[in-house]
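Q: Hi! First time asking for a complex rather than a single chain. Here are the components, and I think there are two in total. Is that enough to go on?
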Amino acid sequence: MFKSLLYKEWIKLRIYWLLLFIVNLAFCGFLCLRLRHVFRINEAMAVWSNWIFKGYLFYRICEYVPLLLGVVLGCLQFFPETLSKRLRLVLHLPLGESRAASIHLVAGLLMLATVYLPGLALIAVSSSFYFPPDFQANLLLTYTPWLLGGLAAYLLTAFTVLEPTWRLRVVYLLFSAALLRLFFLEDFYNSYLRIMLSLTICTSLLFVFPLLSTYRFGKGYGS
Amino acid sequence: MKNFARTLLFASGLVLLAHYLPAGYWLLATKLRRPPIVYYSCTEKEFMFFRYTNLTAIRMDAHGKVYEREEFERILPLDHWMQLLRDGKLPDAIGGVTLAPEALRRERLSFRIKPTMIDTPSVNLTPLLDADTGRVRLEMPEDFMRLGSTIEFIHAQTNVLEREKSALYQSAFKAAGFVFPATVMGGNPSTMKPYDEGYFVADATGATFHLHQLRGKPDIRRVSSLASPEDKPKWEALKPIYFHVQEQDTREVHTIIIDKSNQAWFVVGKNYRLVKIPLQRYDSARMSLVVRGDLINRLISATGDDSVEAVVLNRDYGLVDRYTERLVSRAATPAGKLARAIFPFTLRFEDVSSGYLGVFPEYGSRIALLVNGGLLALMLVWLGSRRKKQKLGKQKAEIRCGMLPDILAVAIGGVYGVALVFLLPKAD
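A: Yes, that's all I need. Here is the structure of the assembled complex.
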């Protein structure tokens, strides 16, 4: 059943996944070209100094890309299910509501991870030509809250979309916006270093929120 | 699961409201509140102040006498010497010290150390300038120094380790008795300065070393070996947490050191004299340290949210005068008291004490606890009356369990909890 549901989600979302994958890779490719350009027109010393001492984050332009991808995937995956109430069919499977919803979320998170990771690898490899390992670690640690923000955005989108009543959808939308803002407070590299673990744990705990919405959907609230 | 999810939702809601509601409140309630700028008059031998009240600034002395700008500048000739010189009012000498413009410019000192400079993210890569290239101006090197468990140099353009130079420096460090890894390092990686002071580095034992690059060669010395015999024990006992290097024309102060016990020190002169800055309230995590020096005195002030302390030292670093003033902290203003009565706690993720993000809580007053208690009592009464009306039977225990997040949210979060009870999904 687990594999079948994953496969169902894959069939449903594969075209969108491919599009998101290409968009993310294109953005990361653009970033790599931009980095190359920056090193072509500036002295390496100046680039390194700007990063280290002034905290200039040259790849900040893609700060909100993971967030956007998370929201888009969440909407594409769950809007059709709720609009036509197709989700009810899944919730009646012998698996149970929570497990069925969890498999949907795992499918979405896996797809999102496979969208993010190749782009991240591309950035890591291309920047290794210009920066020493100290920089690399720094770059990835600065990028991590944005990726976590993307995963959180996906889970919070599912949370909001799956909620059956409009009143709570609005409340969840405000809640999600307020929560997601906390992933983007960075204005200097490594600012999140001391709370990275807490942020990761908090992000993973968000997994239960869509399950609450699914429970309420199954109970027939709002209908 | 649903109870766990609701509990988590309430907990997250509490965190968000404890962050955003007080932030919104302060957006409306904040008033201009700036600490005074402290001066010391070498002619009147007393402290002078530039104070901000509402939207105006006034100049006054320690007795409350208010001065016009011209009078204020006349009393503080060394702080306003350029204006006085332009107006032809600069005295020729004060207390036997001749006020020559070139000497006035050269002998000025200015340092500012903020808490975020001490605790801030950094990458262990920094350029080591050559202090003696034979050129008129300082030049940026082509490589970056990485000083940790070893010392290495990386060529920036090629991103390649410079093995020969790294080995040369590694052996120089060992010869100087440096114990790796380096724990603290401070320098001023800029070419916009009159000379290069190099880096001050503390090794694994806490001992301080002074590192220079001279014509491509390393010059590293244990500072205690350069100090006079009476300063040696002080250097050996010193455990620095921060070195502030900022080259000035006077070349008098090598660095300012903050040590583990929050004590600030000047390192002065050729024999690295260690001068204790006699501030009594300075807290490097909460206060800004400002040093202003001139031909006659050194004025050091430490300013925090609730106090300002200043000391004046003469040119031999002897204490001349001291001033302390309690300021009204934000929490002690009427708006602050109201906030502490309404909000049982506030969460901030940024703080003046650090360049890192973190969770920085502030707790409300006892009134907030009373408010929480009152709101909780009202809620319990309301829940009780609802139960009677609904005449619940077997479901009672389950519903009680389901209401636990609501009750806890009001008990802990007070007004935040009440908002969440109305906004978030009800227990069923």
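A: Residues 12 and 84 of chain B are 60 Å apart (CA to CA). Let me know if you'd like any chain examined more closely.
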